[in-house]
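Changelog note: in this version the structure field was regenerated for every chain. One regenerated record is shown below for reference.
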Amino acid sequence: MTAVQAPFAVVNKGVRPTIPNSCLPALSQIMTRCWDANPDVRPSFSEVVMMLEAAETEIMTTVRKSIIRSNLQYAAISALRRLPLDPGNPAFLHRAVQGVLFSDPVAVRHSLEILSELASKDPYAAAMALGKHAQPGGALQDVLHLNDVLARVALAKLCHTVSRARALDERPDIKSQFNSLLYQLLLDPSERVCFEAILCVLGKFDNSERTEERAGGWYRLSREILKLPDSSSKNSATISYYYGLSPFLIPKIDSNYSSSTQGMGNCTSSTQGI
């Protein structure tokens, strides 16, 4: 079967591609007619051209509205970004959370940067406001696949701030959701995002960690690496290279901490003065 014959064979079997939900109704109607099981019902090439010309106005109007909406979203979040940070203002927080739902990637990035700063001041309020967006299928999950490296970097910082907040110790469910997002960023294809996620897991991105926090960070990081199908994979090699370690040392870190976690409480109490 040649490449030209293959599409006809698929169509004759009644198999059709799935039409996306976001497809314009005019285009959806044209595709449905072109894929009709009865060849006599399918439009000719000239008829398809005429239908596309008739739908051009609807298509261009939709595209124009999308561009205008994207520009307005960017302008709104940029204006919010220029305002002084106001952690105690619920309206300010609400607008920042709304930005996570925007279609413009740069607007989403600015929103996450604002939320990261707000979370450093009031992590409980930020976590409660983001609530459902951190759940599976939420807006923060979509950011993992957003075509904006800096937006994913901001997400890593936000997840670290919330997941390590003492104010949320009584809400382990929320902390685990943000932890899950942070650990997924360890597998990000961008080295910039991957390294930022590593720094966040280790608690080093703001250089404010204590000795016991760094120890806990290394334990968490090595534990997540060992969950990968192959601990000597690209991610282990990348992490090892970044910290000047040989790849074979990564599994050893986990085994060392596994044997010493029973004394982690003693480590915490003995390093208070460091």
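Spot check on this record: The mean pLDDT is 75. The longest helix spans residues 45-82.
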